[in-house]
Specification:
Belongs to the SIMIBI class G3E GTPase family. UreG subfamily. InterPro entries: CobW/HypB/UreG_nucleotide-bd, P-loop_NTPase, UreG. It comes from Poseidonibacter parvus. This is Urease accessory protein UreG. The protein has a seven-stranded parallel β-sheet, sandwiched between helices. The chain is built from seven helices and seven strands. It has one domain: Rossmann fold (3-Layer(aba) Sandwich). The protein is globular. It is of the alpha/beta class and 201 residues long. The structure holds guanosine-5'-triphosphate and magnesium ion (MG). Guanosine-5'-triphosphate binds next to helix 1.
């Protein structure tokens, strides 16, 4: 394990419902866990479903995964009143001193963003099956996140999405900020996300 004297690197993952936030955390953790100590905080409105799923599928001690049940607007819990998430992050830091903590937002709409009081950097994840026009519709996460992830490229042909044209729209709206197109079903496409994380860790 890499030794860190400073606080954990906290990476937020926001994005619309079902875009692939939990699946991305699962895939990244499976690769990163051999080199870094990982902690995970998930947000769901009414349950701890995502945390329960990750506890079942990941080879991590259950205590390193905390499910926050926000009980209300998912924006609020990651941007305005971040106290529930801060408590979960602090618990992980005090007990395990993780190198990296992933904080998954509850599935939301295009206006979700993280407070930088809670995380150091955040990804915003959309997917091709939501339609090619999503990048043109903009939104704070899409424009300003530290990394934009366009997931489910494997589904593009089935939903009539032209990836080249979507890429042009993403490029135009992101200006100089980074973005990646990935498919969680194709592990090698995760490399750019891994490189982005490792450059910060
Ligand atoms: N075909 C395909 N399916 C994917 C991909 N990534 C995720 N999925 C599937 O999409 C569904 C939703 O993925 P999740 O990871 O649960 O999405 P999420 O953003 O965490 O969802 P919420 O937490 O409910 O907002 C699951 O059935 C995944 O298996 C991908 O790249 N390609
Ligand atoms: Mg999820």
């Amino acid at each position: 394990m890499k030794k860190r004297k400073k606080m954990s690197l906290k990476i937020g993952i926001a994005g619309p419902v079902g875009s692939g936030k939990t699946s991305l955390i699962e895939a990244l953790t499976n690769i990163l866990k051999n080199k870094y100590k990982i902690g995970i905080v998930t947000n769901d409105i009414y349950t701890t479903e995502d945390a329960n799923y990750l506890k079942q599928t990941l080879d991590l001690p259950d205590e390193q995964i905390i499910g926050v049940e926000t009980g209300g607007c998912p924006h609020t819990a990651i941007r305005d009143d971040i106290s529930m998430n801060q408590k979960a992050v602090q618990e992980l830091e005090e007990k395990f001193n993780p190198d990296i903590i992933f904080v998954e937002s509850g599935g939301d709409n295009l206006s979700a963003t993280f407070s930088y009081e809670l995380i150091d950097y955040y990804m915003y994840i959309i997917d091709t099956a939501q339609g090619a026009d999503i990048p043109r519709k903009k939104g704070a996460g899409l424009l300003f996140s530290d990394l934009l992830v366009v997931n489910k490229t494997d589904l593009a042909p089935y939903v009539g999405v032209d990836l080249d044209s979507m890429q042009n729209d993403v490029k135009e709206n992101r200006k100089n900020k980074p973005y990646v197109f990935i498919s969680n079903k194709d592990e090698k496409t995760l490399n750019e996300v891994l490189e982005w994380i490792e450059a910060l860790a």
